[in-house]
């Protein structure tokens, strides 16, 4: 099915009805709205204004459209930031970042968690049982703009608590991190700082725990919202729209609290950010690298335990990459079909109409700012027509499982094999090789069942836990391990039995 | 005519008389002095010491030389900075910058404006009617070292006032900036911050207004000085020496308060900073790129409404570029003639004698530090001799007008076409193409009369105001528009009629 | 002779005895220990725990090994940093740097100097006359991680005092720095700030004095330790382990307080950091550039007035360079013989056994983390066997002296000839050329006697002092001067007689 992202708050009410009608005529089923609208829903503290959203929902419902309602926590309003300046994040350089973009909040901030709970509660109280609301999207693209990791005093305090819960006694932390090295022994959890602006590099175990903590904080922030929605919007789904090429966040863990995963697919922008040569980039400038969307479809289908949406589909040129060409004719249609073929339940275009103001004014929509249909519209319409003639089969289990480990990305970031390497590049190389062989691939997290796979590819799994080892032992297919697998303990030490650590028993060394 | 920059305060008084005599013998007409001498004119707060400058002026006057006296506001003394630490600028990274170089002040600082008014008043009271003083130069190279834009609390406050004056009501600002996007709605002008250190990119309208404000602050600071000079130095000219390749400042606006424009011509240093290949840079290393000086002569002749000086002419190797070779033999002569041919009324060499200490000790002068003539001297002398044999015709209107828009540079900076593009590069491409055809070019600001031009080249004019449109309509020649012309409204939105906006009526689309 | 670096505190006591036995069996003479152990020697303020070190020393002594005991001041414990947060250094960007790596202290901090004196006194009182202790190493790799130069308030104050002692009267400083330029005149030493975060570049004389001051502070910090050791550990040697390619510190000056110099030799890591092409780097990736170790052996033999050790010898792959390949087979043996051939009295491998935790877990040792011998062990054993069969002749004076001037590195840093040049690159070019001719080279500081040298190479000596001039005049061999020699006065001015300044008399110009 197809959908679209829509911002009624950007347009005069007079246009809403026609917009809704044309969405129906185009054959769209879902409309995502509201995810950046806090300042319009609550223009002044404690004085919500629901009227416009009531009306927008009614208008969309009037045309039989189902709504995905976003919680607006990615953009706290100015009055909220002024009231609680401590919610602003502090970057790795120690600088407090300012209001004026988006995602200007710290996941650990108790004040912001309370405010998030408050606005989500208000939203769910009002629309949790609204017949036009199919489900909710929490926040927007967690981690975008490098926001998973914050270095503010509240994060420091929360990290100390996280460590205390993890290790119980500070001596256990000293042992786990090897603080006998370089006199880094701690006498109390309260002595531990966030690992940044150190004179020499920080202890890798310290870094890894901080990266885990930061990812956990996002999950906790998300779960807080999910709990409110589960309580006040029974029967409605909850999802989140992940982004491409982000590795600071463990999407498998976060998605455990969701009904399914979503992701935002921008093949051209992503390709411009890939570590390719200028020649390669030029070659794929208007189509995107052939594997870039497929890679993420397969990843997020795994993250969603078989279920995923494309919540935002590139409909034309975007605005945020170093270079933003127009897609080659036919690509929007191709990308849509590619998503559906990989099992996407819904592909929603971003956005209905190009907005003529603010940061994303150069980001195309299905329509131009003046309302005339743009190239993406015609391609979406063709897909909609084609879809009516087709019954898509369910996605079957692939012959190949690729074990994707968010933690491995952190291990490689902390201790790269060489300056140019990243875990993601390594996974991408394996993935592309498999695709070139015409093989379908399922992404699974370490420890997931590997039953039924003829081939299991593990690009790299530095830390092998018991459940992962068990899954490998029980695998029926061939398991192929990439470099550095089994090379670290859970606390970032070299295993006593040396690499490949617990895999020694399994591998013919 | 020829001139020179001279720093009597760097040399023993015993040399002054001979220096002046040799200047006269060389055929120089003008001597610029004093623009960095605050700490010597006022070694302690409120206790000026005029003696040395009185004597220097008398010495120069004794040889019939005319003096351009600089106001010394580019270098507030240490005692002033210690007394008002808030005058130090804050950079985009949020760091207060220190005393120890030059231009260490914020244009918005009320304390510094007061101090600037005080020292200029003292200077003008003493020398405003001095017979040897032909005119004044305000400050020095506004904007050098990235100083137009400051991010201090005083700038924030001044910016809020600027916005309040511009928009009247905050709702007008919300409308103009499109703050419905990303929940950026403001309830009061006092909520608006300076657009830096945001988590995602700032709103482009916010940025553009801030860039306009910052340029306006420089003009206001300059006008404050001009007003003092007009009152106390009647009949003396006032100019300012602009720099090459600076785009943070609108020189057309600032120059409205001046009698004519000046600029500082360093062809080799500028060429090393241009976005050229290593091969191109090597090719032009000792001559400068063939168009680099001409481009600025034509630009600043336009800025000066037909009148300009070269206030500083490179006389040999400089010290501040990544690489600083010696000019090829004959280049100093060639550059001088080139300037005169483009209409420069005066070409003043920087400097009379190479100073053996401090930051610019590796910057050549007409003489070596030991007083012996250097290569530049011999070439300047040849020009001086040649000049006596020639009557230069006045510069005629060129066949081609190039519409140069400082605001366009800001639009491109905020929203580049692609990562490598800048407005200046684009203008330069057009300019070079015209020059290769042997065509003379006048630079005009948008809205200026285009009468009499056979060809009007508009490399890019994103924002087309009424007066510019009118000028295009009344143009007699062909008007050639480059990319993105008419693509933005005055508040950085996509025009309702889509690009090229108001140019639609004019263009055969 | 051979030695090894050993960290008993990283291993269970049960292993110590066998480790010591195997060290003896391998033929090692020296073991360096303790240089990062402060938190284990003094786990809580004022409550030292000597037991483990007593036992470690006894164990090593039991096998006839001699110990080099490190003072642990490179790694102040967390409790110390929390008690005196002001000891943390401030970097050039003005950021206070955090605990969590090493070298997190400011050399000027009075509190830290007192703490350093205290811990060294405690250490020397206990082990100053220990029969197994052959000598002491002060701190570790002064200057590593860019720590020579700090920008904290205590440095500012100390710098002002340093200037007052150097110049006596502030007018002398104004004269020396040429503060008439850009209104930089100071009325009091207390007005002078540290030269960073200025808007335009700082005064070069200011920079040079600050660089001298910073180097002096390191020497003073070291001397404070040496004085304690001389008093409490009579007859024991004192050395320090310098690092490769560091130029912020004057090693000749610091070594005046030492018995001999040591340095840490990592040919592969250093090669990866050299300004070579990718092709060159790939070529030497597993052997190191042929001259890189020799260069430093010769440098530190000069620094040690003929005596030096390699305190840390790369035994396999390291962890800290952008790329860290394994040395080609035989390289560890070759490097060891190369060091001995250049006159190293001792070559100590770093480290006995690879540590499985913390920052350096990927740095090889002679043994793997599980205790099995690694490649380096076998090569070291072969050298040990070969050594028993050889009596190494003493190192004779070389035919060539290379005048190496730490101050020149600062002059080039402040005022590079072109963006890509450094003093070190220039010296390296001369050195490599000499080596390619098969010539042995002695490094000597400016002013040292040049008697007996057939050729004296001076890659560049911008500041020529009286004693250096005298040495040149008295030289028996040919003196070859590189560029910019004699180009600056002691206070970073152009000499009155112009470059080559005092060399004019000597050179046939």
Automatic annotation (TrEMBL), chains A, B, C:
<dbReference type="GO" id="GO:0005975">
    <property type="term" value="P:carbohydrate metabolic process"/>
</dbReference>
<feature type="domain" description="Beta-galactosidase trimerisation">
    <location>
        <begin position="398"/>
        <end position="507"/>
    </location>
</feature>
<comment type="similarity">
    <text>Belongs to the glycosyl hydrolase 42 family.</text>
</comment>
<feature type="domain" description="Glycoside hydrolase family 42 N-terminal">
    <location>
        <begin position="5"/>
        <end position="389"/>
    </location>
</feature>
<keyword id="KW-0378">Hydrolase</keyword>
<protein>
    <recommendedName>
        <fullName>beta-galactosidase</fullName>
        <ecNumber>3.2.1.23</ecNumber>
    </recommendedName>
</protein>
<dbReference type="Pfam" id="PF08532">
    <property type="entry name" value="Glyco_hydro_42M"/>
</dbReference>
<dbReference type="GO" id="GO:0046872">
    <property type="term" value="F:metal ion binding"/>
</dbReference>
<dbReference type="Pfam" id="PF02449">
    <property type="entry name" value="Glyco_hydro_42"/>
</dbReference>
<dbReference type="InterPro" id="IPR013529">
    <property type="entry name" value="Glyco_hydro_42_N"/>
</dbReference>
<dbReference type="InterPro" id="IPR017853">
    <property type="entry name" value="GH"/>
</dbReference>
<dbReference type="InterPro" id="IPR013738">
    <property type="entry name" value="Beta_galactosidase_Trimer"/>
</dbReference>
<dbReference type="GO" id="GO:0009341">
    <property type="term" value="C:beta-galactosidase complex"/>
</dbReference>
<dbReference type="InterPro" id="IPR029062">
    <property type="entry name" value="Class_I_gatase-like"/>
</dbReference>
<dbReference type="GO" id="GO:0004565">
    <property type="term" value="F:beta-galactosidase activity"/>
</dbReference>
<keyword id="KW-0479">Metal-binding</keyword>
<dbReference type="InterPro" id="IPR003476">
    <property type="entry name" value="Glyco_hydro_42"/>
</dbReference>
<keyword id="KW-0862">Zinc</keyword>
<keyword id="KW-0326">Glycosidase</keyword>
């Amino acid at each position: 099915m197809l959908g679209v992202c829509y911002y009624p708050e950007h347009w005069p009410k007079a246009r809403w009805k026609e917009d809704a009608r044309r969405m129906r005529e185009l054959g769209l089923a879902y409309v995502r709205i509201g995810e950046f609208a806090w300042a319009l829903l609550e223009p002044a503290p404690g004085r919500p204004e629901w009227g416009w959203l009531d009306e927008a929902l009614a208008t969309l419902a009037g045309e039989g459209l189902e709504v995905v309602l976003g919680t607006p926590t990615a953009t706290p309003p100015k009055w909220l930031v002024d009231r609680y300046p401590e919610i602003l994040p502090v970057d790795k350089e120690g600088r407090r970042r300012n209001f004026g973009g988006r995602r200007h909040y710290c996941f650990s901030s108790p004040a912001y968690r309370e405010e998030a709970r408050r606005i989500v509660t208000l939203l769910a109280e009002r629309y949790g049982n609204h017949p036009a609301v199919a489900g909710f999207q929490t926040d927007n693209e967690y981690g975008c703009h490098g926001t998973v990791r914050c270095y503010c005093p509240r994060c420091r305090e929360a990290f100390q608590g996280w460590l205390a819960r993890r290790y119980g006694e500070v001596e256990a932390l000293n042992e786990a991190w090897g603080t006998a090295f370089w006199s880094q022994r701690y006498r109390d959890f309260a002595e531990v700082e966030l690992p940044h602006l150190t004179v020499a590099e920080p202890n890798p175990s310290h870094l890894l725990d901080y990266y885990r903590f930061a990812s956990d904080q996002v999950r906790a922030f998300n779960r807080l919202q999910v709990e409110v929605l589960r309580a006040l919007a029974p029967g409605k789904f909850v999802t989140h729209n992940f982004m491409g090429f982000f590795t600071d966040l463990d999407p498998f863990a976060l998605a455990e609290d969701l009904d399914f995963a979503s992701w935002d697919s921008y093949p051209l922008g992503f390709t411009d950010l890939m570590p390719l040569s200028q020649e390669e980039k030029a070659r794929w400038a208007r189509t995107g690298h052939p594997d870039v969307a497929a890679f993420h479809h397969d990843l997020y289908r795994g993250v969603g335990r078989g279920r995923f949406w494309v919540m935002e589909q590139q409909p034309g040129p975007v605005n945020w990459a170093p270079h933003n060409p127009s897609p080659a004719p036919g690509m929007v249609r191709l990308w849509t079909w590619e998503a559906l073929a990989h099992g996407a339940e819904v592909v929603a275009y971003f956005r209905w109409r190009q907005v003529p103001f603010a940061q994303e004014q150069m980001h195309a929509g299905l329509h131009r700012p003046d309302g005339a249909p743009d190239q993406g519209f015609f391609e979406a319409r063709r897909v909609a027509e084609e879809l009516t003639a087709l019954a898509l089969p369910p996605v079957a289990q692939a012959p190949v499982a690729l074990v994707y480990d968010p933690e491995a990305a952190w291990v490689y970031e902390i201790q790269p094999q060489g300056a140019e390497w990243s875990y993601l590049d390594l996974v991408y190389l394996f993935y592309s090789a498999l695709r070139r062989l015409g093989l379908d691939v399922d992404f699974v997290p370490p420890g997931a069942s590997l039953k039924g796979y003829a081939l299991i590819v593990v690009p790299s799994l530095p830390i092998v836990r018991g459940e992962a080892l068990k899954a490998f032992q029980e695998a029926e297919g061939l398991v192929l391990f990439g470099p550095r697998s089994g090379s670290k303990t859970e606390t970032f030490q070299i295993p006593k039995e040396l690499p490949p650590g617990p895999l020694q028993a399994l591998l013919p060394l």
